[in-house]
Design brief:
Blueprint: E1 22-27, E2 33-39, H1 44-57, E3 63-66, E4 72-79, H2 81-92
Length: 95
């Protein structure tokens, strides 16, 4: 489900949009990982939608959902361990 997400040689990547309010990473039994980036508040939907659009434009498979608390979450995964850092960098940038 990683879509076009591939290991990058670029050590510095800016985030693809506004920073999420919460990022969660969890292990899956098969050794891969899931990542959620959640956006809240008045602009939460717009920020999440902007991230989703860029991810889909890059060919990265993701899901988009509304949370019970009103937040909006973009979910990536399952991803192999080697891609987790790069996937998180899409949301928060790197270095």
């Amino acid at each position: 489900m990683s879509g076009a997400l591939e290991l990058s040689e670029d050590p510095q990547q800016p985030p693809i949009g506004p920073l999420p309010d919460r990022v969660a990473i969890w292990p899956i039994e098969d050794g891969t990982f899931g990542i959620d980036a959640t956006f809240t508040g008045v602009t939460g939907y717009q920020h999440a939608e902007a991230h989703e659009a860029v991810l889909r434009q890059r060919g990265v498979t993701c899901s988009f959902r509304q949370e019970l608390d009103g937040g909006w979450t973009i979910r990536l995964g399952p991803l192999p361990r080697a891609l987790v850092e790069q996937a998180v960098a899409l949301f928060i940038g790197s270095r």
